[in-house]
Design goal:
alpha+beta; Lipocalin; eight-stranded antiparallel beta barrel; 3 helices; 10 strands
C-alpha cells in the first residue's frame, strides 16, 4: 500500500478510536461478561451511503455468540442503496461458503440522512430469500472507510432470553475490503479500531477468502 494512503488509514483509525473512547466508559469493576448493552452507535462523518454500496469482502471478524465457528470462506456483502425522502434504504445480500453448502442471508434497513447520523444503519435480517424476517432490530455503524479499499463496521443487537431470564448482546465486528485480501499492515491498523469497543484483539480472526 502506498505510504500516503497508509498514513491516511492510520489517521482515520485514530480518529475513530478517539470518538469511541469519548463514549460512555466501562466501570473499572465491570467484567466484559457483564456488558449486555451495545456500544454507542458512533460512525464516520460525513458519510456517503451511495459510495459505500457495492461488494465488500470480509477479511477479519469474530465468531458469533462465542460458539465454535464453522469453517467458512468467501464472506461477501453486496450493498444496494436507494434514497427515499430523508433516509437511504439499504438491501444487502450476504454470501457465506462452507465445505458443505453456501448460505445467503439477506438484510434490509436504512441509513438516516439526518446530520451526524448518516453512517449508522438500522436493519433486520432473514436466513435466506423467502424466509420470515427475524424479530428485533440491529444497528450497524460504519466506523471508518475510504469507500474504495477498506471499511470497519460493527453490528450490535441487544437480546433477552426468557428461559434464563437473562440479557446479552450480539456484537459482530467486520473488517471489510473491496478485494478478497487486504495488505497486512493496513489490516493490523483496522483491527486496532475494534479494540476501542470492548473487543479483544485475540478474538479477531482473519477470514479465508482463497479461491473467491
Amino acid at each position: 500500500m502506498h505510504s500516503s494512503v497508509f498514513a491516511l488509514l492510520q489517521l482515520a483509525a485514530s480518529a475513530a478510536l478517539l470518538a469511541l473512547l469519548l463514549g460512555p466508559a466501562r466501570p473499572a469493576h465491570a467484567h466484559p461478561g457483564h456488558m449486555h448493552r451495545c456500544p454507542p452507535p458512533l460512525g464516520k462523518f460525513p458519510f456517503d451511503a451511495q459510495k459505500f454500496s457495492g461488494e465488500w469482502f470480509v477479511v477479519a471478524r469474530t465468531p458469533l455468540l462465542k460458539i465454535p465457528d464453522v469453517d467458512s470462506k468467501c464472506h461477501k456483502f453486496t450493498y444496494s442503496t436507494e434514497s427515499q425522502g430523508n433516509e437511504t434504504r439499504v438491501s444487502m445480500k450476504i454470501t457465506i461458503k462452507t465445505d458443505e453448502k453456501a448460505m445467503e442471508p439477506e438484510v434490509k434497513g436504512h441509513f438516516s440522512n439526518r446530520p451526524n447520523a448518516g453512517s449508522v444503519m438500522q436493519g433486520v435480517w432473514r436466513p435466506s430469500a423467502g424466509d420470515k424476517w427475524m424479530p428485533g432490530v440491529f444497528t450497524t455503524s460504519v466506523l471508518v472507510t475510504d469507500y474504495d479499499t477498506y471499511a470497519v463496521t460493527v453490528t450490535c443487537k441487544e437480546m433477552y432470553f426468557d428461559k434464563t431470564d437473562s440479557f446479552d448482546r450480539l456484537l459482530i465486528p467486520h473488517v471489510l475490503s473491496r478485494t478478497p485480501e487486504l495488505e497486512a499492515n493496513a489490516l493490523a491498523v483496522l483491527k486496532n479500531v475494534l479494540t476501542g469497543i470492548d473487543i479483544d484483539e485475540d478474538t479477531i480472526k482473519d477470514q479465508d477468502n482463497s479461491g473467491c
